[in-house]
Write a structure and sequence with these properties.
There is one protein chain. This protein is α/β, with parallel strands linked by helices. The protein has 3 domains: 124 residues, Nucleotidyltransferase, domain 5; 163 residues, Nucleotidyltransferase, domain 5 (2-Layer Sandwich), CATH 3.30.420; 139 residues, Hypothetical protein af1432 (Orthogonal Bundle). It is 46% helix and 17% strand. A 6-stranded mixed beta sheet has the order 1-4-3-2-5-6, with helices on both faces. Helix 9 packs antiparallel against helix 10, helix 14 crosses helix 17 and helix 15 packs antiparallel against helix 16.
């Protein structure tokens, strides 16, 4: 299939990997002039959520099933540039608590970093994928995506998502909880729907009928329901409330998961089908949905479109940063002065410090723009306030590791380095973040007085991985004793963090 896109002439391949609670998906696309052409799709019903234990550890057999799938995906990724690949983990990956052990193993199997994204970010990407598959229009849409462990609700217009929420229910989690032994009865179906309705209740007033013109569903669960109701003649197009009612009666009559025989239902979908039907039924009832259109595009297609946007310098993260700058009243002129100096320093050390990727420069620039965001709360400890904002704010476009990276840089941009600030970073981001933070600190130090006066261009050299030599124009430091004193203090701070500063 192909969908229209604006001007783009290269034929670079892009790959998006969605590691869901029920299935792992990968789509590969290529730009053909002005169109995105999907050239390959891979899917494996891993059912990762099935292996999540009560203590949030992962069953070894399920973990191995996931790793085997990722190795196969990794083989398909060979030859695709790393910057044209994005892999994200969703609900179950968010819940695993093993100090990152499974994530590191998964990244080795795939051969590429995996971002763990928040529920809100998942919802945004779902909407982006769905919106590109729909005819253009200004009407307000309700988009629903039922995954294995979470359900995303989004209101949006055109390609822009608005309100979005992630609910803690999905086809795998609901099936395990309410149909755990495979039995399906009228009571268990009613109880499952009530439980789902309880999850919806806090946001029901936002998403109920009257706040949108068209309801659209995506994900494997909703597509499977659409296939069944159509194959059985209960709905010619999409899913209706009446067709869902007939489907529930059929499932209850079957009595057990193993006894379900429905035209249009695959064997691998059968174990989690009842839970998915209960969730969608509750959403129809709670939100007043009578008919739902079904989209074949979802999170992974949203990832593809965003990847293409990155290569065309249309990065939603820039808009997010600009919004935060405005919202928290950041001194934009000061932020730009710091950013200009930091960018110049990065250009001098990018190769010896292995900071050559475009995202390194972008993350440093965004940290410069946001390093004073905490001043809106208090001047005392504003770096801590800023880090808290960046770690917890809804930041469209940013993955959890990227938010953690920004938060760590802002926390450590002044005074003593806090080792605790690095704890939420995946291992592959730790050293790049530390090095970018050093560049941020030096840039902030030079502009500490918030003066619009031009500062000298610094010469920065890396003598070895941890030794920095900073050069100033002749006699400049002698005529700026405060900066000289601050550099002496900075040398002490950096020494405690494993860096040696000479000037």
């Amino acid at each position: 299939m192909s969908t229209p896109l604006q001007d783009q002439t290269d034929e670079t391949s892009y790959a998006a990997i969605d590691l869901g609670s029920n299935s792992f998906h990968m789509v590969v696309g290529r730009m053909d002039k002005d169109r995105l052409v999907l050239v390959d799709r891979l899917r494996d019903s891993v059912r990762l959520g099935e292996g999540l234990r009560e203590d949030q550890s992962l069953d070894e057999q399920v973990a191995q099933r996931a790793l085997d799938c990722l190795e196969r995906f990794g083989q398909r990724l060979r030859g695709i540039p790393p910057e044209a690949i994005r892999a994200v983990g969703t609900n179950t990956m968010r819940q695993i608590e093993d100090n990152g052990a499974f994530l590191r193993t998964a990244e080795r199997a795939l051969g590429h970093p995996i971002e763990i994204i928040s529920g809100n970010e998942e919802a945004r990407l779902v909407y982006l994928g769905v919106a590109h598959g729909l005819a253009a229009g200004d009407e307000t849409r309700l988009v629903i995506d039922i995954g294995g462990g979470s359900t995303e609700l989004i209101l949006g217009q055109g390609t822009e998502p608005g309100q979005r929420d992630s609910l803690y229910m999905g086809c795998v989690s609901m099936s395990r909880l309410m149909f755990g032994e495979g039995r399906i009865s009228e009571d268990s179906m009613r109880s499952a729907m009530l439980r789902a309705a309880l999850e919806v209740r806090p946001v029901r007033h936002i998403y109920q009928q009257g706040n949108w013109s068209r309801a659209v569903g995506s994900s494997g669960t909703i597509r499977a329901i659409r296939s069944v109701v159509k194959a059985n003649g209960w709905s010619e197009e999409g899913i209706t409330a009446a067709s869902l009612k007939k489907l529930r009666k059929k499932l209850i009559k079957a009595g057990h998961v193993d006894a379900i025989e429905l035209e249009g239902l695959s064997d691998e979908r059968r174990p989690v089908f009842a839970g998915g039907v209960a969730v969608l039924s509750a959403l129809f009832d709670s939100l007043g949905i009578e008919k739902m259109q079904v989209s074949d595009m979802a999170l992974r297609e949203g990832l593809l479109y965003e990847l293409i946007g990155y290569t065309r310098h249309i990065d939603v993260r820039t808009r997010t940063v600009e919004s935060l700058v405005e919202r928290f009243g950041v001194d934009n002129a000061q932020a730009q002065r710091v950013e200009m100096t930091a960018t110049a320093l990065l250009s001098q050390v990018a190769r010896p410090w292995d900071l050559t990727s475009g995202d390194h420069a972008r993350m440093l620039g965004w940290a410069c723009r946001l390093h004073e965001v905490g001043l809106s709360i208090s001047h005392s400890g504003f770096h801590k306030h800023g880090a808290y904002i960046l770690a917890n704010a809804d930041m469209p476009g940013f993955s959890r590791p990227q938010q953690a990276m920004l938060a760590a840089m802002v926390y450590n941009h002044r005074r003593k380095f806090s080792e605790a600030a690095w704890q939420n970073l995946p291992e592959y981001l730790l050293e790049p973040t530390r090095r970018l933070t050093v560049l941020l600190r030096l840039s902030v130090l030079l502009h500490r007085g918030h003066s619009p006066d031009n500062k000298p261009m610094l010469y920065l050299d890396i003598k070895d991985s941890g030794t920095l030599q900073v050069g100033f124009p002749d006699d400049w430091l002698a005529s700026h004793p405060l900066t000289h004193l601050e550099l002496e203090h900075e040398a002490g701070y950096l020494a405690n963090a494993g860096f040696k500063l000479k000037f």
